[in-house]
Design a protein that fits this description.
Elements: E1 3-5, E2 12-15, E3 20-25, H1 28-34, E4 39-44, E5 49-53, E6 57-61, E7 68-72, E8 78-79, E9 82-83, E10 89-92, E11 106-108, E12 151-154, E13 161-164, E14 170-174, H2 177-183, E15 188-194, E16 198-202, E17 207-211, E18 219-223, E19 232-234, E20 239-243, E21 258-259
The chain binds zinc ion (ZN) (3 copies).
Length: about 280
């Protein structure tokens, strides 16, 4: 049965029953919680979510949301469970290392989909919840209300707010295992900008950064209050890596390639025509 873990390993979980209601959710809260294009979640009865290791977690409940969302306190990776309205627990499935035992039923909350992401597969799409689930609707938070030029972004709780004023270098989807663990998603979607083209305008003191000990570059920055991923500054390379799920405005650029496809999730099929690279970008 498939296991998953957070980036630092403080949280490890397993599901020992097929995931029900497995779907991709495009709502703004999922995108901000994971910093990704969409979340992939499924549900099991509580006894089928097995916690193999359970470290400290940040719990955050958006105003108006029926769900609390959990992130590892040390590395910011999304971790389960989410409490559901239907007696099951929602499990972050994007980072599962192994098959979920069921197929994707569709896309939900496509009404709040990110403008920079195109759904290319044939799975059914629903504006909000799928038919049959009667739950209160909620609004996608947008916390960036500061005037001025540039592309705005913010964490899930809205305390960390930033603005991109520089010309982006590239946007790409990354399927490496570190990104999948860090975002709890099938892949990360990152916008790379020059370091002087990013300005954190609020909440800089809330930002925490976890560095993977054995990695040359890999790190995750996140809000210490909500766990939402935020831009990570890499002074050495002169860049900032922006998790695109945290953007409030359309950055104009679109992801142009898939990298580290050689380590992608076995049950995820890439449906678009963008170039794919087994490892890092060429050149
Ligand atoms: Zn962790
Ligand atoms: Zn969602
Ligand atoms: Zn926050």
């Amino acid at each position: 049965m498939p296991e998953a873990r957070c980036l630092c390993g403080d949280h490890v979980w397993r599901v020992d029953a097929p995931l029900q209601f497995l779907h991709h959710c495009h709502c703004g809260m999922c995108r901000k919680h994971q910093g990704s294009a969409y979340s992939t979640v499924g549900a099991v009865a509580p006894e089928h979510l097995v916690r193999l290791r359970e470290g400290a977690a940040i719990a955050y409940q958006s105003p108006g949301s029926p769900l609390s969302r959990f992130s590892c306190e040390r590395c910011g990776s999304p971790v389960p469970p989410g409490v559901s309205q239907i007696g099951l627990v929602w499990v972050i499935a994007g980072s599962l290392e192994g098959e979920p035992g069921s197929s994707i039923e569709g896309h939900i909350f496509v009404g709040s989909k990110a403008p920079w992401f195109a759904i290319e597969d044939d799975a059914p799409q629903h504006e909000r919840y799928p038919p049959g689930i009667d739950a209160p609707a909620f609004e996608t938070p947008c916390s960036s209300d500061l005037p001025g030029q540039g592309v705005r972004g913010s964490c899930l709780c809205g305390d960390v707010r930033f603005r991109i004023t520089g010309e982006p270098i590239v946007a790409r989807h990354c399927h490496c295992l570190r990104c999948r663990r860090a975002r709890g998603a099938l892949h990360a979607s990152n916008l790379v900008v020059p370091v002087d083209g990013l300005r954190v305008e609020h909440g800089a003191d809330r930002v925490r950064t976890y560095r993977v000990p054995e990695a040359r570059f890999f790190a995750q920055s996140f809000c210490g209050d909500c766990g939402g991923p935020v831009p990570r500054v890499d002074e050495g390379r002169g860049i900032a890596v922006v998790p695109m799920g945290s953007l409030d405005d359309d950055p104009g650029v679109r992801p142009s390639e898939h990298i580290f496809v050689g380590s992608k999730s076995t049950w995820h099929e890439i449906a678009d025509d963008l170039p794919q690279y087994d490892e890092g970008p060429p050149g």
